[in-house]
Structures are given as structure tokens and as C-alpha cells.
Amino acid sequence: MPIQYKIDVLSELKKKGYSTYRLRKERIFGEATIQKIRMEELVSWDNISIMCRLLECQPGDIVEYKKE
């Protein structure tokens, strides 16, 4: 897939205090979204937007295009 994550999203969220338990408990992300992130599958732009807000970054800090 040409677009992929540049960072380990769940690890970076954990560093900011957002464990997967907290993400589910506070209904920030559902279990299906967390599993997609864990499996390095892309999620919706709405979810990328939430990641950017939580990580205080830009989308380009999270995903990148790699020519196949």
C-alpha cells in the first residue's frame, strides 16, 4: 500500500497518556479502529484528525506516501 504510517501510532498515543484502554473507555476510538491501527491498516481521515489533535501534530507526521 503506497500510504503508510510513519510512526507507531499506539505507542506515541501511550506516551501522551492515551492507552488503548483509555481510548476505548473514553470512546475516542472503537475497538475496530484500534485493531486497524495495530495491524498498520489505514483509518478514516476523521480518525487521523483525532490522532493529530491528541498527538499535537500534522497528518504528514503520521502518514507518508511510499512509491511501490
Q: Could you walk me through the main structural features you see in this protein, from its secondary elements to its overall organization?
A:
The chain is mostly helical. It has one domain. It has helices spanning 9-15, 20-25, 31-38, 45-55, and strands spanning 3-5, 63-65. It has a two-stranded antiparallel sheet with strand order 1-2.
Strand line-up across the major sheet: 1-2
Structural class: mainly alpha
- Cα separation of the termini: 7 Å
- What is the chain-wise order of helices and strands? EHHHHE
Mean pLDDT: 96
Q: Which oligomeric form is depicted?
A: single chain
> Runs with pLDDT <50, length 5+?
none
Question: What profile does the largest beta sheet have?
Answer: 2 strands, antiparallel
Indicate the radius of gyration in whole angstroms: 11 Å
Helix share bin: 40-55%
Q: Beta fraction of the residues?
A: 5-15%
- Report the count of strand segments: 2
Write a concise synopsis of the structure shown.
This protein has 68 residues and is mainly alpha-helical. The protein is built from four helices and two strands, in the order E-H-H-H-H-E. Strands 1-2 form a two-stranded antiparallel ribbon.
